Predict the 3D structure of the following.
Amino acid sequence: MKRKYIYISFFAIAMIITIISVKSTFYSVPNKMKTTQVDGKYNLGKRIYEKDCASCHDKKMIEYATAPPLGGITKRREKNWLYNYTRNSSKMYSDGDTIALKLRSGNFGLMPSFPNLNDTKLDAVYYYIEKEYQKNKSQKTD
């Protein structure tokens, strides 16, 4: 009688293991899908960048275009300065901001102002810029 219970227990455990392994195979998400996650902040930043920035700044954030490359900008400038300059570069220039004056003296025109970009949108733009820069910086040609 004991042997019968042992065989039944063994069979039950084997069935449970089989069911679990088959179920996990059917319902597992391929590794490719697991690593590709939707990043809403990145996507918002990308849309804004493509609409408002890409006509003057390099899309890879590493080369000069009509304006300087933006890669690494959040490491070189304070957030408050970046947001103020993005919203109203003309005012910063006319107020005598040293960085705005230096950019203008480097034969770069004043950046258009984007007063409609709130902190959330600017966070997304600069997040996108840095992500793209990290992705592309090894391609930089000096």
Observations:
- The radius of gyration is 27 Å.
- Helices lie at 2-27, 31-35, 40-52, 73-76, 79-87, 89-94, 98-105, 119-136.
- The chain has a mean pLDDT of 84.
